[in-house]
Design a protein that fits this description.
The protein has four helices and three strands. It is of the alpha+beta class. It has a three-stranded antiparallel sheet. Helix 3 packs across helix 4.
């Protein structure tokens, strides 16, 4: 299965191979023919994702507050590791 993903560090967008979701009992599998990326939600994520770290912080002050709370509860080193891990990962885009 292919999905559209965005790297959080630099905002780059790529098509990535991903495993198909498991089929739970009582569920059905539907073959997707088309998908959409909205210019609103996903477009906004792409714009913010391409900003510098400071630009990301300015665009998302709530996440800055969460990060500061995390520093208070986990400590600076553990918080830096979590933030770096998040920035290195990729987030799926689209519906």
């Amino acid at each position: 299965m292919r999905i559209l993903t965005q790297r959080m560090r630099d905002g780059s967008v790529t098509v990535t191979e991903a495993p198909s979701p498991s089929l739970e009992p009582g569920s059905v599998r539907v073959r997707t023919i088309h998908s959409a990326v909205s210019p609103g939600t996903e477009g906004g994520k792409i714009v913010v994702g391409r900003k510098s770290l400071l630009g990301k912080a300015r665009a998302k002050p709530q996440q800055v507050r969460q990060t500061l709370d995390m520093v208070r509860s986990l400590g600076l080193v553990a918080t830096i590791r979590k933030v770096r891990s998040k920035l290195e990962g990729a987030e799926p885009l689209g519906y």
